[in-house]
Amino acid sequence: MTYPATTGEFSAAPGHGSRYERSAVIDLDAIRHNVRRLADAASPAKVMAVVKADAYGHGAVPVARAALEAGASWLGVAHISEALALRAAGIDAPLLAWLHTTESNFGAAVAAGVDIGCSGWELDRIVAAAREQERPARIHLKVDTGLGRNGAAVDSWDQLVGEAMDYQDQGLLRVVGIFSHLAVADEPERPETDQQLATFREVLAVAEDAGVDPEVRHLANTPATLSRPDTHFDLVRVGLGIYGLSPFAGQSSAELGLRPAMTLRTLVSQCKEVPDGQGVSYGLHYRTQGDSTLGLIPVGYADGVPRSATGGPVRVAGRTYPVVGRIAMDQMVVDLGRAGLAGADLLGAEAELFGDGADGGPTADDWARAAGTINYEIVTRISPRVPRRFINEKDRSPKASQEKLS
Description:
This protein has helices spanning 28-42, 52-56, 60-69, 80-88, 106-111, 123-133, 157-169, 192-209, 222-227, 364-371, 375-380, 398-405; strands at 2-5, 8-11, 22-27, 46-50, 74-77, 95-97, 115-118, 137-142, 173-179, 216-218, 235-238, 262-267, 270-274, 279-280, 286-287, 292-297, 313-316, 319-324, 332-335, 350-354, 388-391.
């Protein structure tokens, strides 16, 4: 990563032998492991790895490559711009983008061979783009089976299918897929999933009667992939699971056979002795109970750490401490609990906010509980100011390629 300066450019990467001041470390072997685990659960259905929102904050291009290496057949994103970035990186796998506005660049999607989700209103715009590009568009028709977001209403499904088939007969598009999205699959006891599945089967029958012969029918998300094999059809769309996080309140990642891929860490930037009653951070809502040592952790809500997550865990030198006082834009504080630590070589010690939890350390789920949110949000919101550091990435340099061929 480089940042422009008034006198030119400088590299933001650390020098030889130095450590990143702060980083989100992404273990691509964990991504591969998780994709294989989900592929086993989905078989014989294929896997679409969902890498929208910069792969839930993990880095879309490296994660997409790792997912494909591990057996994913498709990639999925929300926006066409995300799909085009993957194509620009040389990724040519089947790729679906499904959330559009009237300003979306359908022409660029058609030209790049990106499949386009279609809820109805987009159809004429997609066809116009196909005419302009002189190339048939590939579309997936989406139906709203109960989530209440995008997707055609069931009452208008017949009309959408009919119009799409007319355009297909004209050679302007190909109906590649039919899909919908589940609302409560992360709560397996709820009956709405059965209702949505029944509706999906009904609309598939309508499409089949109209002559649609899709390559893929897809409904299942990560929780349904793991708990509802009757929703798998031809393809499952897995997002959270490939990042090693559990979608279920009552089951951990480890219990599901998943490995969290992101570790958020930094270095203690100050360590100082304070007296009894010392206030901490804006508002002084926390005061020390006796003489103590405060550790300054140089990340905050500008780095994507929720401001509301006071009490979130930070591990320093093998012990986990809660954040005290308000989380600020760039920093937060942990109370190390006793005097005498300021001289104990903790300045510059690694501070881990969350990781895979394998050694009992803090996890994204712990931060989600502290912030009153979900683990999806914790990893996705880590800002670009925090450099991503990828480990277990396959060497793609020309030299490495030559070595592999020799």
